[in-house]
Structures are given as structure tokens and as C-alpha cells.
From TrEMBL, chain A:
GO molecular function annotations of the record: ATP binding; ATP hydrolysis activity
Membrane topology per record: Peripheral membrane protein
Protein name: Peptide/nickel transport system ATP-binding protein
GO terms classed as biological process: peptide transport; transmembrane transport
Organism the protein comes from: Rhizobium loti
Lineage: superkingdom: Bacteria
TrEMBL record, chain B:
Subcellular location: Cell membrane
Gene3D superfamilies registered for this protein in UniProt: MetI-like
Spans through the membrane: 77-103, 110-131, 137-156, 192-217, 243-264
Leader sequence segment: none
Organism this protein belongs to: Rhizobium loti
ABC transmembrane type-1 domain sequence ranges: 75-264
Keyword vocabulary terms for this entry: Cell membrane, Membrane, Peptide transport, Protein transport, Transmembrane, Transmembrane helix, Transport
A GO CC term attached to the entry: plasma membrane
Family: Belongs to the binding-protein-dependent transport system permease family.
Biological process according to GO: peptide transport; protein transport; transmembrane transport
Record's bilayer topology term: Multi-pass membrane protein
PANTHER family hit by this protein: D,D-DIPEPTIDE TRANSPORT SYSTEM PERMEASE PROTEIN DDPC-RELATED, OLIGOPEPTIDE TRANSPORT SYSTEM PERMEASE PROTEIN APPC
InterPro entries per record: BP-dependent_transpt_permease (IPR050366), MetI-like (IPR000515), MetI-like_sf (IPR035906), OppC_N (IPR025966)
Protein name, UniProt field: Peptide/nickel transport system permease protein
Length: 327, 279
């Protein structure tokens, strides 16, 4: 079964300097019990994608076309605000990047965890008991006595685990995580990923995981999509993409990943050029202005070239495999 | 927490002066009846215009009323009006500010326009207009204070709301299905209480001055209710031969205003440097 299916999603922001197409023809799906990673550099539209799914786009943003099918029957792109709010925190939960800011500084952790359960109809005691159980699951030591403490009394890693506990409290079908480990140091990052994996297995939910850290995606996700300038340029299983990336952007992204460099280098390689201005998208392929392989054909919209299995690259030259990469 | 705050305030010279003055003013208003044996409105023609003496520490006025007594009870009136009017302005300001900051864009624009329009009205003209409409009374004072304070409060609350609206924990709460009312009540309001309290302590002297000013002009509380502004006015009428009345009326206004201003500014500098420079 598919928990989330995004079809041809287009999102635009209305700005003072014109219309900005933040997402263009985005399609992908998140199967039940699977983790799907989303990678892409800053500004490529990862947060916009999440906000569109959650119905939390900024006032100047708008879903111009497309569908966001949740659990097979609800189109979130057309769901009213009240129904949408009913799903948030219940069926779809979210964890954000900044563990420092994710909790309300003036309320105790116990109070915030109780608040999340306001739709459960449980008594205060039962709610607290569930909070304690959940905190234990995310490995907060001595959870009973910590319920009365305030966010500033916890370390960054603990705060992030509490945020995860709160998100999973109502056993959602889909957990969305927007760079939940970026603000943590490397050891904590690994621990948090492990924890997320365990919890996902435990609860049996799907995860949509946003990161610009490829190693994290490789570790946690079954499938992944690569975004560039608001478009999905490549998608497939994590294995397919890491071993046989076909889109030039993905190949460059992998080449730039410090963890995959075979030798020590003085300067980390970067992708030349910058993201295009989304108010004036280049015609044809969006990546063509930065691409070494670009030719006349690339000035027309590229096809979604099937590579095999679920693997797709949105490119005219998807036949060029980078053998050296897999070494 | 409380004692640490007090100690930090007392370490600043201005804070120490402010806190001491505020304490003296508040205590003398609260315990007015214990501090004097005279009744505030008791007229005794035999003692008219008595200069300061052991019997009447601040002298008496043109009706022979003990001025110290009237100053103490006048302090009660001034503080009650200051606290009451500030509280009412605060409630209105918070509600409007939250609506402007969290509501739709057009409503924000309409409210901002109203705030600016009200704010641009000079206080004296506002006071005169309202008194012409409703007659001099306590309510006129409260209404003037409200109209003067609400736009400022609402603007600050609006700005803070706008900032918090995109704060991570508010986004998190929204993404977890909290309603707008819940977000405002639980996630935004408690986080702006601090700056609000500082604003209040800085605005109390303004309200004290408005009340005194209106009573001075005969637009405020009605006699025989004691009021510092009214005493000051009596004093000016008799300044040639009874200088002490002006002192009795003026000194508490000056001390209260200074006390609360120093106290408020110290609080602000200690806890919310962001508000610095706001006059
Ligand atoms: N409210 C808005 N109004 C106008 N433009 C916006 C708005 N929100 C986002 N954008 C634009 O949409 C594009 C995508 O932004 P988004 O925040 O989704 O990127 P991101 O991939 O999440 O980046 P990051 O990795 O830095 O979080 C950017 O060009 C951004 O400037
Ligand atoms: Mg983002």
C-alpha cells in the first residue's frame, strides 16, 4: 500500500518581484513502512514540499495544480483547513531541524506531551503514563521525574529525541522529518538515526526524511528522490541511486560528498554555478546552465528516462553511467 | 528567582533608587489609613492654610484638610487608576495585537491604520474631547489612558507575534494540529509576557502623569476625592502665600514618575535589551 502519493505537484509563491515557481511537476510516492529520503541543496524546495503536504504553505504560497493523495483516498491538496488540521499530529507528524526551538520554552515537557494528546480523550494520568512510555522509548533516562522539567533543562540531543517522541505519540502513518539531525553533532546524529529506524519498525509508520546529508539518507532510507530547483531530477531506491546515479546533478552531488572522497583534498569539490532564479526558470532542463553534458537537446524539456526498476532520471543523457563513482 | 531579580536590580544605582521609591509609594498608598490619623476629606476651617508643623507635616490646604493625608490617599487613587487603566489597556492591546499579528494580512493593515490614527491624536485634545462628551470622571481618565496606550501595546504585541509566528516551536505546534486559538494562548502569549511586564512598569508613570494632569485641569477625578493633580492645582492658586501646597502636590508626582521610570528601565536593560531605545 502507498501512504503518500504526490502527483505532478506545482507550488508557486507570489512575491513582490513576480511569481516564483518553487515546485514544478513533483511526483513521488512513499510506500507503507518505508523511508523515503529527499536530498537537494539549500533552496531547492524541500521545506516547501513538506509545507504543501501539511497544508502549511505561507500566505503567499499556493498549490497551483497536482494531487497529494494520502492513504489512498484523501487529496491533501484539496482538503479543507479543519480536516487538514485533524490529520496533523494524528496521521501525519513532523519533526523539525532545530532541537533548541522545537519545544515551547515556557511549558514543561510533560505539559507539552499531554497537549499533543488532546484528541485522545484519555485522563490526565493516562496521558502522562503514555508520555513516560514514549520518553522511555526515545531513551530519556528517568522519564517520570523529567516530565516536570522545562526544555532548557535538557541537552540538544535530548530535546530532539523529545520532539521525536512527541511526533510519534499518536502513532502516525507518516512521519515527516525536516533535517532533524543537521543541528546535532556527528555522534548524536548517528544515534538519532538509529533511534528513528528502531521507532519506525516499532510503530510501523512511513518516513519522509529531508536532508542535505547523503550519508544520513543512505543509512536510513529505502528510497530517495533528488531535487533540484523545485523539480525531482532523479528517483529510485537508495541503492540504485548511490551505485548508479544517472542524472548529472546527482552524480556531482555524490562526487562532492566529503564522506565519499577517496583521498584527502585541500579543498572540497563543489558544483560550479548557482541555483537558477526560480522566477525565471531556464527553458528546457533546469540543470542545463550548470551541466557539462548540456547540448542543444537540453533546451527542450527532458523525458523521465527509466533506468530499470523504480529508478528514473529526468535527463536527456541518462545513459551515461559514472563507473568511477561506485568505487 | 524573585530575590535574584531584586538583587540584580539593587546592584544598578538607578534600579536601587527606582525600586526604593516604588516600594515607598506603594506601601504608603496601601497603608495610608495607618500612616495618618486624619480623614482625607475632613474640612476644618480653623486650620486653613496651616504651614508644615508637627501636627500637619505637609501643612493644610484652603479648606484646612491635612495635606499629608490627602497625598497618601491621593497615592491610592493614582495607583489604582494607573494599575486599572494599564490593565484594561493591556487586555485590549494584547487582543488587538494578537489579531493583527496572527490574523489575515488585510486585517493587520486595517488595524495598523487605526493604531496610527489614534496615536497621532494629541493627548490633551483627546482628553478635552472625551471630557466634553462624558464629563470629568474617573472613566474619562481610564478612557484617555486606554486610547493613549493601546496602540503602542498592540504594536509591540503584533511585532512579537509576527516573530513568534514563524518560530520553530510554533511551526511544530501547527504541524502537529494545534488550532489558532491554542497557538495564540499556549505558544505565543506566554512567550511575550516578559516584554509586556516591562512595558507596564515603564508606562505606569505615564498614566500617573495623565491622571495628575487631567485632575490638575479639573478633567479627572471629582473633588473631594483626593488627587495629586488637584492638590497641585490648589497649590498654584495659592502659591504666593502657601508654597507648601504646591510641594505636597508636586513631590509625589515627581517621585512616583521617577521611581517607576528608573525601575522599568532597569528591568528592561536587565531582561530585554531588544527593547532598549524605545522611549
Ligand atoms: N514564503 C515564500 N515566499 C517567496 N518565496 C519563498 C517562500 N518560501 C520559500 N520560498 C522560495 O522557494 C524556494 C524553496 O525554498 P525552501 O525553503 O523550500 O528550500 P529548502 O530546500 O527547504 O532549503 P533549505 O535547505 O535551505 O531549508 C526558495 O527559492 C525560496 O526562496
Ligand atoms: Mg528547508
Amino acid at each position: 500500500m502507498t501512504v503518500l502519493e504526490v502527483k505532478n505537484l506545482n507550488v508557486a509563491f507570489h512575491t513582490e518581484s513576480g511569481r516564483l515557481e518553487a515546485l514544478k511537476q513533483v511526483s513521488f510516492s512513499v510506500p507503507a513502512n518505508r523511508s523515503v529520503g529527499v536530498v537537494g541543496e539549500s533552496g531547492c524546495g524541500k521545506s516547501t514540499l513538506i509545507n504543501a503536504i501539511l497544508g502549511l504553505l505561507a500566505d503567499n504560497g499556493e498549490i497551483t495544480s497536482g494531487e497529494i493523495i494520502f492513504e489512498g483516498d484523501q487529496d491533501l491538496a484539496r482538503l479543507g483547513p479543519t480536516a487538514m488540521r485533524g490529520l496533523r499530529g494524528q496521521s501525519i507528524a513532523t519533526v523539525f531541524q532545530d532541537p533548541m526551538g522545537a519545544l515551547n520554552p515556557v511549558l514543561s515537557v510533560g505539559r507539552q506531551m499531554r497537549d499533543i494528546q488532546y484528541r485522545s480523550g484519555l485522563s490526565k494520568r493516562d496521558k502522562d503514563a503514555r508520555s513516560v512510555a514514549m520518553l522511555r522509548k526515545v531513551r530519556i533516562p528517568d522519564p517520570e521525574s523529567r516530565l516536570t522539567q522545562f526544555p532548557h533543562e535538557f541537552s540538544g540531543g535530548m530535546k530532539q529525541r523529545i520532539a521525536i517522541a512527541m511526533a510519534l505519540m499518536m502513532e502516525p502513518a507518516l512521519l515527516i522529518a525536516d533535517e532533524p539531525t543537521t543541528a546535532l553533532d556527528a555522534t548524536l546524529e548517528v544515534a538519532t538515526i538509529e533511534l528513528l529506524k528502531d521507532l519506525q519498525r516499532d510503530i510501523g509508520c512511513s518516513v519522509l526524511f529531508i536532508s542535505h546529508h547523503l550519508g544520513v539518507i543512505a543509512e536510513l532510507c529505502d528510497e530517495m528522490i533528488v531535487m533540484y530547483a523545485g523539480e525531482v531530477v532523479e528517483s529510485g531506491t537508495t541503492r540504485e541511486i548511490f551505485h548508479d546515479a544517472r542524472h548529472p546533478y546527482t552524480q556531482k552531488l555524490l562526487a562532492c560528498d566529503p564522506a565519499r572522497l577517496s583521498q584527502r583534498v585541500a579543498r572540497l569539490p563543489t558544483i560550479a554555478g548557482t541555483l537558477p532564479d526560480l522566477r525565471r526558470r531556464p527553458s528546457g532542463c533546469v540543470f542545463q546552465p550548470r551541466c557539462d553534458r548540456a547540448d542543444a537537446q537540453c533546451l527542450t524539456t527532458p523525458p523521465n528516462a527509466p533506468i530499470g526498476g523504480s529508478h528514473i532520471a529526468h535527463c536527456w543523457h541518462a545513459d551515461v553511467s559514472l563507473g568511477a563513482m561506485s568505487a | 528567582m524573585m530575590w535574584r531579580t531584586v538583587r540584580r536590580i539593587m546592584r544598578e544605582p538607578l534600579g536601587a533608587i527606582g525600586l526604593t521609591l516604588v516600594t515607598v509609594v506603594v506601601l504608603s498608598a496601601v497603608f495610608a489609613s495607618a500612616l495618618t490619623s486624619y480623614a482625607p476629606s475632613k474640612i476644618s476651617p480653623a486650620e486653613r492654610f496651616a504651614p508644615p508643623s508637627l501636627l500637619h507635616l505637609l501643612g493644610t490646604d484652603h479648606l484646612g484638610r491635612d495635606l499629608l493625608t490627602r497625598v497618601l490617599y491621593g497615592g491610592r487613587v493614582a495607583l489604582l487608576i494607573a494599575l486599572g487603566a494599564t490593565a484594561v489597556s493591556l487586555v485590549v492591546g494584547v487582543v488587538l495585537g494578537l489579531i493583527a499579528g496572527y490574523g489575515p494580512r488585510w486585517l493587520d493593515n486595517v488595524l495598523l491604520l487605526i493604531f496610527d490614527a489614534v496615536k497621532s491624536f494629541p493627548t490633551v485634545m483627546l482628553a478635552l474631547t472625551l471630557v466634553t462628551l462624558f464629563g470629568p470622571s474617573l472613566y474619562a481618565v481610564v478612557l484617555v489612558v486606554m486610547l493613549v496606550n493601546v496602540p503602542g501595546y498592540a504594536r509591540i504585541i503584533r511585532t512579537q507575534t509576527l516573530v513568534l509566528k514563524s518560530a520553530e516551536h510554533v511551526m511544530a505546534a501547527r504541524s502537529m494540529g494545534a488550532s489558532a486559538g491554542r497557538i495564540l494562548r499556549v505558544h505565543i502569549l506566554p512567550n511575550i509576557i516578559g516584554p509586556i511586564l516591562i512595558l507596564i512598569s515603564m508606562d505606569i508613570p505615564v498614566v500617573v502623569a495623565i491622571e495628575a494632569g487631567m485632575s490638575f485641569l479639573g478633567l479627572g477625578v471629582r473633588p473631594p476625592t483626593p488627587s495629586w493633580g488637584a492638590i497641585l492645582n490648589d497649590g498654584f492658586a495659592n502659591i504666593r502665600d502657601s508654597y507648601w501646597i504646591v510641594i505636597a502636590g508636586g513631590l509625589p508626582i515627581v517621585l512616583t514618575t521617577l521611581g517607576f521610570t528608573f525601575f522599568g528601565e532597569t528591568l528592561r536593560d536587565l531582561f530585554d535589551p531588544r527593547l532598549k531605545g524605545r522611549s
